[in-house]
Every structure is written in C-alpha cells, then in structure tokens.
Design a protein that fits this description.
Blueprint (H helix, E strand, L loop, with lengths): L17 H6 L9 E18 L3 E7 L2 E8 L4 E10 L3 E2 L3 H8 L11 E13 L5 E11 L2 E16 L7 E12 L14 E15 L1
Antiparallel strand pairs: 1-2, 1-3, 1-10, 2-5, 3-4, 4-6, 6-7, 7-8, 8-9, 9-10
Length: 207
C-alpha cells in the first residue's frame, strides 16, 4: 500500500489558542467548559483505496458531539462523537447501499459509530503552536477498540455573528485498519483497502 504520510502533513492537533500557547498563560475566566459541536459546521470524511487504482473519498452526513475542555490548563475532561452509519455518502447510490449493508457498516444492526475520548496529550512545537494527540475508543459494528487522533485548533474566539458564543474551530485526523473491527470485506483480494483515513472539521460552541 502506498504511503499516506502526505495526508497527515496538515497542521496536527488540538486545543488551546495560539496566543495562549505563545504567552504561556490562560485567561482569568478559563475553567472546564462544555462545548457542543455545531451540526451545521461538522464535516466527517473518509478515504480508502479501491483496487489500487484510486481512493474512494466519501462523507458521513450526520453526526453530533460534545466535550468538556479547559483552555487554561489545556485539559480535555471528556468527549463523545456519534456518527449515523446510514448517512454515508460517496456520490454513488449503488456503492452507498453496499457500504450500508452487512459487508461493511451493517447500518441496520449498528446504526451508530461512536468515539469516546479518554485522554489528551499536549505537545508544544518550536513555533509556539500547541499540538496534541487525542486518545479514545471507537465503537463500530458492536466492537470497541482504541484509536488516536491528531488534532489542531484553528481558532478560539467569540463568533463574529449569529450565536456570538466562544467557539473553537478544530481539525482532526486518524488512520485505522477496518479489519480490526471485523470489517474485512475485499481486503484479502485487494479490492478495498484495509486502511481507512478519517478526517473531521468542525466548530464547537461553548454552552
């Protein structure tokens, strides 16, 4: 399988404002706060090899999530994201029906894909950017296994219009072997890749 390193050459990782990281101090009001992912600004993508010719790129169109985070201490207390398996979309109706069936997502029996966060490891880069790795578990097809995401805070500020709440803009990336969850259709024959790249882009509003 070809290298995926270029896919991850994106600013890695989660949390805390760039100005806070540079100054080493958080705002006086900072404490653990609850955030809810804005469903109107939540993109969930996946990418997987097809026969070695090209990757299929798709999305899940429905997802929700929330987490508790302290900007001053850069501590993530908890987090949960739920993705609707039936909402898979790759711009091809027959393929999407196949991905929903028992060869892949088995969406009728397992309608939800759930990520539960368990810990965050911050890493300070030389350029003052705060990076980190988010660990947790992914439940898929009724099986639960650990996963690690690389995340990046793009912006932390009061939203300039609309709800005007303090908002975090976050990118996250992960790579997993789908066969670990028992989804091995097409792997042995090289029809569909085992490695799946996941990407998340979202805005989370302080409650």
């Amino acid at each position: 399988m070809r290298s995926r390193k270029s896919f991850f050459a994106v600013r890695p990782l989660l949390v805390a404002g760039v100005l806070l990281a540079a100054s080493g101090a958080g705002p006086a009001w900072a404490e653990p706060r609850s955030y809810t992912i804005d469903p109107d600004h939540f993109s969930i993508g996946f990418q997987v090899d097809h026969l070695g010719y090209a990757d299929v790129i798709g999305m899940f169109l429905k997802g929700s999530g929330s987490f508790v985070y302290d900007e001053a201490t850069r501590t993530l207390s908890s987090g949960r994201v739920v993705v609707a398996a039936q909402s898979v979309f790759s711009n091809h109706e027959a393929r999407d029906r196949h991905v929903r069936d028992s060869d892949f997502l088995d969406a009728d029996r397992h309608p939800e894909i759930v990520f539960e966060a368990s810990g965050f490891e911050p890493v300070m880069e030389n350029d003052g950017r705060l990076d980190g790795r988010l660990s947790g578990t992914l439940t898929l097809l009724g099986q639960t296994h650990p996963v690690t995401l690389e995340v990046s805070l793009n912006k932390a500020a009061v939203y300039p219009f609309g709800h005007r709440k303090h908002t975090l803009g976050i990118s996250a990336r992960a790579s997993l072997q789908r066969s670990q969850w028992g989804m091995d259709y097409g792997v042995a024959r090289g029809m569909v890749g085992d490695e799946v790249l996941l990407s998340f882009e979202f805005e989370a509003m302080q409650d």
